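Hi all, long-time lurker, first post. I run a small reading group and we've been trying to get comfortable going from sequence to structure in the token notation. Rather than ask abstract questions, I figured I'd post a concrete chain and ask someone more experienced to write out its structure so we can walk through it together at our next meeting. Sequence below, copied exactly:
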Amino acid sequence: MQTDVFDDILCQLLDDELAMLRTEFAAIMNSLNNAGAGFFLIGDVAVAEYTNPFATTELDIQLLNHSLSDAHQILSVLNLDFIAHGNQLIIKSKQLSEREYDYRIYLHAPIHFVSQHYKQGRSAKVLGIQGVPVSDIQTLVWFQLHWMLAGGRHCKLQYKVHLAQLFGAELFKIEEARRWLIESSNASMISLFNKVVSDIENAKLNPGLTWGEVQELKRLQHEPSPKAETDFLLSEKNGGIPRR
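-- Answer (accepted) --
Happy to help. Here is the structure in token form:
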């Protein structure tokens, strides 16, 4: 799927706001490229490139061969707002800081496993910028599991939905993914993968979420009980979330 994903999922932006965000994104990409800093997209935008465009306010960039401090130094000349947060460096858009949903770019520190196993994925057109590198699908599946292991309960539903989308696209078969993980990952990740696959198959999890459904999922992620998430994803009356 070679689509301008961000033009679809940032439809809430006015034309002049989108142009300003494009300018910021282009400056970041150009600076990283000029410095020889290897990177590729992960997260929502990368998943959308392999499946269907959907709503997000985040853009995740995985660094390959430069540290976060290197990236900060490279980008410091652009007069951006930076927030250091663990293994991430968050760039908050100055142009859109007054909006209810802030649009942010996350730079992720290099991970040894990723550097060893990453294969060149797709090139996407993002915010009007051609040739932006996107994660290969194996690495993208690994990241969803990695984040599930690292995050709390409120994070896990989002990544489970992402995995349902990726396997639903049938570009990476479940058994093929299991064999790849057995060869390359630890027991905790393989065990989680098997549980997630079982949950997806048993719940008939539907990956085709609309903007309204994504917002509802965000709200449910903060509920005290996981039952609300299950009720939303699987309704006996309508057979689950309607497909788009």
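A couple of things your group might point at:
The radius of gyration is 18 Å.
DSSP finds eleven helices and seven strands in the chain.
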